[in-house]
Amino acid sequence: MNHANQPKADVQSQFGKNAANYVTSTIHAQGNDLEKLKAMIDWTGKESVLDIATGGGHVANALAPLVRRVTAVDLTTEILEVSRDFLENNGHTNVEVMEADAEQLPFADESFDIAVCRIAAHHFSTITSFVQETFRVLQRNGTFILIDNTAPEADRFDLFYNEIEKRRDYSHQRALKKSEWVQMIEEQGFELEELYRFPKQFQFEKWCKTMGLPDDEKRALSKKMLEAPVDIKRKFRITAEEGMVSSFQGEASLLRALKR
């Protein structure tokens, strides 16, 4: 296999195996970020929305009643099958679900009014290509909404968070810092309109189960987290029960930007 394609193959493997978990995952299906997404735009019902890396279909599900049409794309066939069933079972007839790569979108220039990518970009191997493609397919004055897990600004905390995510999920590439996202989207030509940070509570067992982490690897990961320096455990609010991590806290950020 071409090593350049390995990250995409890892994503397809992980999400193919664990597709159903992402539809039912409460941390993906719910959240203040979804409510904020719906509330921050004055929807007219005429919008054409692109949902990039739809995963369990939660963005498409939330926005379908508010807009003219949603095109939901993902790289993984298995997760598209479960998200399509999820959306159809919820009665949405204005959502098209199709396979596509976020870094090579199969759409003409200026095809959409709004593009949303939620809790997915940390899996992308070439973030700049994703941002460029999103900019390309948006109409002028179109809106880009990016929601993703973000790393703290301090390098020490950034490294720790990305390491534990990688150990839980080998398809994880990197959660960027908020400052990195702002720089990247502005360099592409977007204008940042809004930025929000959401504390994100992870229940360790559910967090590991979502990606089907084997018990021995789960125990090793818990040990690493519990043996972390005091400042790291304080930063990530790491708690323990009966010698295992019980919960910890990360963060997600929501950025809204305009294509000018």
From TrEMBL:
<protein>
    <submittedName>
        <fullName>Ubiquinone/menaquinone biosynthesis C-methylase UbiE</fullName>
    </submittedName>
</protein>
<keyword id="KW-0489">Methyltransferase</keyword>
<feature type="domain" description="Methyltransferase type 11">
    <location>
        <begin position="50"/>
        <end position="146"/>
    </location>
</feature>
<dbReference type="GO" id="GO:0032259">
    <property type="term" value="P:methylation"/>
</dbReference>
<keyword id="KW-0808">Transferase</keyword>
<keyword id="KW-0830">Ubiquinone</keyword>
<dbReference type="GO" id="GO:0008757">
    <property type="term" value="F:S-adenosylmethionine-dependent methyltransferase activity"/>
</dbReference>
<dbReference type="InterPro" id="IPR029063">
    <property type="entry name" value="SAM-dependent_MTases_sf"/>
</dbReference>
<dbReference type="Pfam" id="PF08241">
    <property type="entry name" value="Methyltransf_11"/>
</dbReference>
<dbReference type="InterPro" id="IPR013216">
    <property type="entry name" value="Methyltransf_11"/>
</dbReference>
